[in-house]
Design brief:
Layout lengths: L2 E2 L2 E2 H7 L11 H9 L1 H29 L6 H5 L3 H16 L4 H12 L6 H31 L3 H17 L3 H11 L1 H8 L6 H28 L5 H16 L3 H21 L4 H4 L1
Antiparallel strand pairs: 1-2
Helix pairs in contact: 2-3, 3-5, 3-6, 5-7, 5-12, 6-10, 7-11, 8-11, 8-13, 9-11, 11-12, 12-13
Length: 279
């Protein structure tokens, strides 16, 4: 029988749906629970969601308490290191809730001693998003001043990015990446080798980060084009990303979002003065 993360596929198929939620327990799992082995696995469903959500909450708190209260002059002089730190906090806040199903499944392998610690996998995931902060920094430096001044060209650029994001929402690549993000089991079937080694676990986390980036990169480009540190847009895009991946109506929502982004983009291109009202 095929194995993923050091345990058999069949019991996981019986106990997990696409979102990674626990359903009915098999006889074998019940016997493990009575023997004490299943207790640790069951506890993963209790502490892991709270841990990831706590880290995400810290990211939101840091963003609101730190960057959210910066004046425009302080923002303009933000160093590369300070921006990257803020970016990582933002990505933790926005993205960690959406990867909970895949991390929960990975944690089951950790409990069995078949994978490196969860932090290694999540660290590999965050490295990908941290790297994205490098080009985001230079784009932000170019746009920060013009956006603060409600420059027409900056508004039209943001509108063009919104239109590009709208088109990307409907592409096969977006759909492919979303399928991988929605099915943790399918992801580990393809990328579940050498998870017991830290390098293998970090690489798997990085690969999942790449799929996640494939889902969301145009939305993140839009976030930068609209000012990067805008809390309102951060919250809106974080909710969209989470629901696209986790909700049963995710495909419908992606198409609705595409329509909304198209309207936003067209409005900014045709009426650039609107930028002052939305950033």
């Amino acid at each position: 029988m095929q194995r993923v993360c050091g345990f058999r596929i069949a019991p996981i198929l019986a106990s997990h749906d696409q979102s990674g939620h626990t359903e009915a327990m098999s006889q074998r799992q019940m016997s493990e629970l009575r023997a004490g082995k299943g207790v640790a696995r069951w506890s993963v469903g209790l502490w892991l969601p709270h841990s990831l959500l706590f880290v995400a909450a810290l990211g939101w708190w840091w963003t609101v308490a730190g960057v959210g209260h910066m004046g425009s002059s302080a923002m303009a002089t933000m160093s590369f290191a300070a921006f990257l730190l803020a970016w990582v906090a933002m990505m933790a806040a926005m993205m960690l809730p959406a990867i909970l199903p895949v991390v929960r499944l990975y944690a089951l392998a950790v409990v069995r001693g078949a994978a490196a610690p969860v932090g290694v996998f999540v660290g590999g995931y965050l490295v990908v998003w941290s790297a994205v902060g490098i080009p985001a920094y230079f784009l932000w430096r170019r746009l920060n001043g013009p956006l603060a001044e409600a420059s027409p060209w900056a508004a039209r650029f943001a509108g063009a990015v919104a239109i590009g994001a709208s088109v990307y929402q409907l592409t096969p690549l977006k759909s492919l990446c979303l399928r991988h993000c929605r099915s943790p089991l399918a992801f580990f079937l393809h990328h579940g080798r050498n998870l017991d080694r830290p390098v293998g676990a970090a690489l798997a986390g990085g690969r999942h980060g790449v799929y996640c980036l494939g889902c969301c990169w145009m939305l993140m480009a839009l976030l930068v084009a609209l000012g990067t540190m805008s809390l309102g847009w951060m919250i809106a895009l974080a909710v969209l990303i989470l629901l696209e991946k986790a909700a049963p109506f995710g495909d419908v929502l992606a198409r609705v979002a595409a329509a909304g982004l198209l309207v936003l983009g067209a409005a900014l291109v045709l009426y650039p003065a609107l930028i002052g009202n939305i950033v």
